[in-house]
Amino acid sequence: MATETLKKVAVNIILENGTDSEGNLKLVNLSLGTLSKDSFDADKALGIVQVLGPCLSKTINSVVKVQTSTISAY
């Protein structure tokens, strides 16, 4: 039976960066960096993003939580 062990939690803010020649939306990532895997709180992460929003020159498209885990057979 496989076991997963959470190693890292990070949050990326996806920002709109104009459009390409065909009119498709271009996106860029802005990382909030690695956060505590043991005490991560989505509400607090969104609070940080909301406070940062007016300081950014690009529009926020979405917020993504990225988790990194190891998988082992033990």
What does this structure look like?
The protein is mainly beta and 74 residues long. The protein is 15% helix and 55% strand. It contains one helix and three strands; from the N terminus they run E-E-H-E. The chain has one helix spanning 42-52; strands at residues 3-19, 25-35, 60-72. It has a three-stranded antiparallel beta sheet, with helices on one face. The longest helix has 11 residues, at 42-52.
How many separate helices? 1
Poorly predicted residue ranges: none
Largest sheet: 3 strands, antiparallel
What separation lies between the terminal Cα atoms?
A: 7 Å
Strand content: over 45%
Write a concise keyword list for the protein shown above:
74 residues, mainly beta, 3-stranded antiparallel beta sheet, 1 helix, 3 strands, 15% helix, flat
Layout: helices, strands, pairs:
Blueprint: E1 3-19, E2 25-35, H1 42-52, E3 60-72
Antiparallel strand pairs: 1-2, 1-3
Concise structural overview:
The chain has 74 residues and is mainly beta. It contains one helix and three strands.
